[in-house]
Amino acid sequence: MLTAWRDEDVNDLFVLFSDPRVTRFYDIPTMQEPEQAARLLAGLQQRFSAGTGIRWAMRDRDTGEFMGSCGFNCWDTQSRTAVLGYDLMPEFWGQGYASEAVSRIVEFAFGGGLSCGPLMQIEAKTVRGNRASERLLERLNFRLFDDMATGAIEQPDLKHYRLLQPQRFGELVLN
Ligand SMILES: CC(C)(COP(=O)(O)OP(=O)(O)OC[C@H]1O[C@@H](n2cnc3c(N)ncnc32)[C@H](O)[C@@H]1OP(=O)(O)O)[C@@H](O)C(=O)NCCC(=O)NCCS
User: Fold this and answer.
1) Is 131 near ligand 1, meaning CB less than 6 Å away?
2) Backbone angles phi, psi at 4, to 5 degrees
3) Number of domains the chain is built from
4) Hey, which of 92, 93, 97, 139 would you mutate to test ligand 1's pocket, going by the most ligand atoms within 8 Å of its Cβ?
5) Does this model's pTM top 0.85?
6) N or C: the chain end with fewer CB closer than 10 Å?
7) CB of 142 closer than 6 A to ligand 1?
8) In this structure, are residues 133 and 126 in contact, taking their beta carbons and an 8 Å threshold?
């Protein structure tokens, strides 16, 4: 299940982001101090109240155990485009949890559940070589954005994916 953050999540957030397996493909350093998790948690809560993005805590439905996080790091209200993010505790990898959670929030966001209104497009950036992340996006029908064609090659080590709102995708195909 996906829930809001609780103050006591700070310890689990530290466990998550102090694990080098989790941060292996991140451009942020692996956490060293619990203080860093406290700052991150404050930022996640602030983002939620400011309405500039949303990250949910993922928890086991039965036990409530913290599993990870997913959500939209930010969005642009004009283009109705949001940037997706997700990370899971390694003990839960490879069991379909992230795919399940991400497909639910994608549906929610295209359906108008976010405070910015129904999204038209979702973007995701993943470091080359992060096969689990690439597979997750491909499985959910995200398409590789052709940075070479557009000339938008700001970060060559990143793969840039996007998913259009299903109705809009239909319109583009018909046109
Ligand atoms: C990316 C991440 C969230 C995937 O979580 P997950 O719950 O293991 O993903 P799923 O079980 O839903 O699997 C998604 C796909 O990735 C594949 N996959 C999972 N782990 C893999 C691995 N280590 N290598 C290659 N493929 C892998 C699965 O087989 C599945 O593909 P399939 O549909 O073809 O079978 C998880 O690996 C993670 O938290 N990584 C660290 C943080 C991170 O890199 N986040 C992404 C930042 S862009």
Assistant:
1) yes
2) -70, 170
3) 1
4) 93
5) yes
6) C
7) no
8) yes
